[in-house]
Amino acid sequence: MQMHIDFIAEARRQSEICNACRYCEGYCSVFPALHRERAFSDGDITQLANLCHNCRGCYYACQYTAPHEFDLNLPQALANVRQDSWKAHAWPARFAHVFDRNGVAMTGLLVLGFGLIFALAQGMRPASGEGFYAYLSHGLMVAIFSPAFLLPLLTIAISLRGYWTTVGGGRLRWTDLRGAFALAGQMKNLKGGHGDGCNFEDEDRFSHARRHFHQAVLYGFLMCFAATSSGTVLHYVFGLEAPYSFVSIPKLLGVPGGILLCIGTAGLAWLKTKADPELGASGAWGGEMAFVLLLFSVSATGLALYAATGSGAVSWLLPLHLATVLTFFLLTPYSKMAHGFYRLAALTRENAKQRGDA
To answer: Which domains does the chain have, with CATH numbers?
Structure first.
């Protein structure tokens, strides 16, 4: 808890200086929200932190960074608060702290462990079945992945409720939520204050690369989710069971979605190697990179599995793919994936404040 208070206090100190300076007015959603306040409560700082997209343009434009005595590094100050707010509101909280300390090792061990379990489960393969169901029964996959998908959503809902209370959120309005979805879909805050892009990977150059890679991840993930959902509808509503041909809704959504997801995650991992780690959350670089690579592995193994259909490679690709997917689901409330839900909540709250619902 003391660390949480220290992060809040430092972010408050820097925000007060920024509020007096106002040179970065209009850079992104953070600064209109910051300049609207006269004083900053803990909830205000938490809200600002989750509005921040860490584009870093304000840092490179700032005249008060080190070696100036003010020593401003607002991107890092807000990143520390943002990272800590996810842990503070995560439920159960103990898991969040374990992942924060051992995220890379935990991810690797879970993938290996689940992969071994799925490989052994093939010894109980059904007497009949087509495609993947020739290796693992449909009932077994449903029994494993249904709770693995629904329980993380429940924990995220509990976490977001705590966040909403902390930032003083009132009654949720559809218009505010719809506006937040529009901003998130456009990645507007990654365009920079004047639409030239952000400075994430290079202080002297504006770039839209990070926004484009984020969009590839977002829309690739949504397409993959839609592919799985459409397969569920075809199976249970229309009685059409997998495997599906390429000219089918699950494949027409899933294959392009997987490709987009691979491109987006690989691009974000590449950008992280070029960016200054001192402008992000302290000690979070490894865990964030592990999560990006996990999401890449989910999409890459899925595409490889589809390409290997009908070959002997399915027997080891299927356990590997299912292990990455299961690990991704279980770690979602405690990994960087949670930031999407908190960012959406922060944008929704900001829309309400702009409307005058303080």
So the answer is: 2-85 (no CATH), 92-354 (1.20.950)
